[in-house]
């Protein structure tokens, strides 16, 4: 495609007297891994909520894959190819990991639930196809051996990987990962880095919102930095690492 996959333009969000996001603009290109960082309260989560549709903007625009999605529903955004994970894990504790991912696959079913209920041959074929897809996704995120365990039987790190797998089942063009490494130890963060790279290899763009700077610096091709709701930098990781404004935002002192 010509131009960015996601174009954020002059995005603003106010909550009463709180100006959470201020005239924010940035692009994400197809297959690109972009980091979004900033101190606590800088507007990162609000930005993700604005892009994913869980929060409406006060002003500004969002164009995704050539489509203006500023006022579209979450369902429409998912259908267009936008998916996300959340900071907190919300699972069906009694469902297996395979059930979770297979359920998300329904967003791409080609047949109606009536065709499924009537067990028509085409619907049965589609079911087999989607189950195979769910198994492949679990394999990619390292959960194949746990596929038949329930959500409540796996570790918190595995639950976070399951959220990524569920988002991938919707066949996104852009995946928003909100604090994917929260609660992970070093070995688990290394495995997450490999998973993000494998996602990129499939041509899926990724935006990573994360506090673990080593992971961000390792996996992202470009990093945007927010402070008090405003973008203060947007550049290559090595440039961001040495940016005085970024250092000041994190350390709270001039350098």
Walk me through this protein's architecture.
The chain is of the alpha/beta class and 255 residues long. α3 packs parallel to α6 and α5 crosses α6 (156-168). It has 2 domains: 1-81 and 172-255, 3-Layer(aba) Sandwich (Rossmann fold); 91-171, no CATH class. The strands form 2 sheets. It has a 6-stranded mixed β-sheet, sandwiched between helices. It is built from 10 helices and 10 strands. The relative contact order is 0.18. The chain has helices at residues 44-52, 74-80, 97-105, 113-117, 121-140, 156-168, 186-201, 213-219, 237-241, 244-251; strands at residues 6-15, 18-28, 33-37, 59-64, 67-68, 82-84, 174-178, 205-209, 222-227, 230-235. The model has no long low-confidence stretch (mean pLDDT 91).
| Total of domains | 2
pLDDT < 50 stretches: none
**CATH superfamily caption of the largest domain:** P-loop containing nucleotide triphosphate hydrolases
What's the level 1 CATH class of the largest domain?
Alpha Beta
Largest sheet: 6 strands, mixed
Give the helix tally: 10
Distance between the termini: 41 Å
* CATH fold topology of the largest domain: Rossmann fold
Order of SSEs, N→C?
A: EEEHEEHEHHHHEHEHEEHH
By oligomeric state, this entry counts as single chain
Number of strands: 10
In a few lines, what is going on in this structure?
With 255 residues, the chain is an alpha/beta fold.
């Amino acid at each position: 495609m010509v131009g960015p996959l996601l174009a954020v333009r002059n995005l603003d969000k106010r909550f009463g007297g709180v100006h959470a996001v201020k005239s924010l603009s940035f692009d994400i290109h197809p297959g690109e891994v972009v980091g979004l960082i900033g101190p606590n309260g800088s507007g990162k989560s609000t930005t993700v909520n604005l892009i994913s549709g869980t929060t409406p903007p006060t002003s500004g625009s969002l164009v995704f894959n050539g489509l203006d999605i500023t006022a579209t529903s979450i369902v429409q955004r998912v259908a267009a190819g936008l998916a996300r994970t959340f900071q907190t894990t919300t699972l069906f504790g009694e469902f297996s990991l395979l059930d979770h991912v297979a359920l998300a696959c329904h967003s791409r079913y080609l047949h109606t639930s009536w065709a499924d209920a009537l067990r028509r041959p085409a619907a049965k074929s589609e079911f087999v196809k989607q189950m195979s897809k769910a198994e492949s996704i679990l394999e990619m995120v390292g959960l194949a051996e746990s596929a038949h365990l329930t959500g409540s039987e796996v570790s918190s790190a595995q639950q976070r990987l399951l959220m990524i797998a569920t988002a991938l089942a919707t066949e996104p063009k852009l995946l928003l990962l909100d604090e994917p490494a929260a609660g992970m130890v070093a070995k688990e963060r290394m495995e997450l880095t490999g998973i993000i790279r494998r996602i990129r290899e499939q041509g899926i763009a990724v935006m990573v919102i994360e506090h673990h700077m080593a992971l961000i610096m390792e996996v992202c091709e470009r990093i945007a930095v927010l402070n008090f709701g405003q973008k203060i930098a947007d550049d290559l990781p090595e440039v961001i690492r040495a940016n005085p404004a970024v250092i000041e935002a994190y350390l709270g002192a001039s350098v």
